[in-house]
Amino acid sequence: MTEQAHPPTELPPRETIMLAAFEGWNDAGSAASQALEHIHEVWGAEQVDELDPEEYHDFQVNRPVLGIGPDGRREITWPTTAVAVATAPRSGRQVVLVHGIEPSMRWRRYCTELLDIAAGLGVSTVITVGALLADVPHTRPIPVTATSEDPAVRELLGVDPNTYEGPTGIVGVLQHEAEVRGMRALSLWAAVPHYVAHPPSPKATLAILTRLEGLLGEPIALGDLPDDSIAWQAGVDELASEDSEIAEYVHQLEQAKDTADLPEASGEAIAQEFERYLRRRDKGTGG
């Protein structure tokens, strides 16, 4: 009997990838947008384009902000969508970062404009990144699910089919429109504990970045995020300890989570996760 090979878990090297996250409905605890902001900072991304906010935003919903600019003059910051380009330090892969506020109108035109920019930059794969509120305990690893409507993507990366039916946000529309154009497309969602929904959510941001490391085959410098994640969890622990009802609720979530995870704790699953860990670390050290 021949040994069955595990499916690849990384996107092909050198291909240009677009990561997109949007503040608002798709971004519980600001976990997704802060993951992209982190990559922008540590990889030194440079902005190359932006969308005209006049076309897509209701300024009574997302108001412009008055502030003091670098030159000391008062300036207005508009709720636009920015497109930046970074170069992954190890592989040299070009990564396009799209970060904005979910638009109020003209979603189809909005997605068309973004994907036209992506096509001009040579993007072959679009990864939308979101975060949702869920019944998960803050004391356990933050779940991050990866799904795709495209059977080829599911076979390539071993991700789940997208079976969701119901109201969607701009990330769902953008992912669908990318697939219509013939681009590879997948979606990442982090589950943020609903009882600590207020941003920031460094533990969820960290979980998203860890999953992106695996998909891109590229270690991401995490900076203070691991320490921030530990401090965040300790702070929530302290709050829960002061309220017996919350403490009991967290305990119930822990039991449900641990029971649901039992079937996954097989030798093969553990071996695969360890292989992915080693591969990420080896690439990070140039080994």
Concise overview:
The chain is α/β, with parallel strands linked by helices and 287 residues long. It contains nine helices and ten strands.
Question: What would you say this structure looks like, in words?
Answer:
This protein is an alpha/beta fold. It is built from nine helices and ten strands. An eight-stranded mixed sheet has the order 2-5-6-1-7-10-8-9, sandwiched between helices. The protein starts with 15 loop residues before the first strand and ends with a helix. 33% of the residues are buried.
Chart the SSEs and their pairings.
Blueprint: E1 16-23, H1 31-42, E2 46-50, H2 53-56, E3 65-68, E4 74-77, E5 82-87, E6 94-101, H3 107-120, E7 123-134, E8 144-148, H4 151-157, E9 160-161, H5 170-180, E10 184-193, H6 202-216, H7 225-241, H8 244-261, H9 267-284
Parallel strand pairs: 1-6, 1-7, 7-10, 8-9
Antiparallel strand pairs: 2-5, 3-4, 5-6, 8-10
Helix pairs in contact: 1-6, 3-5, 6-7
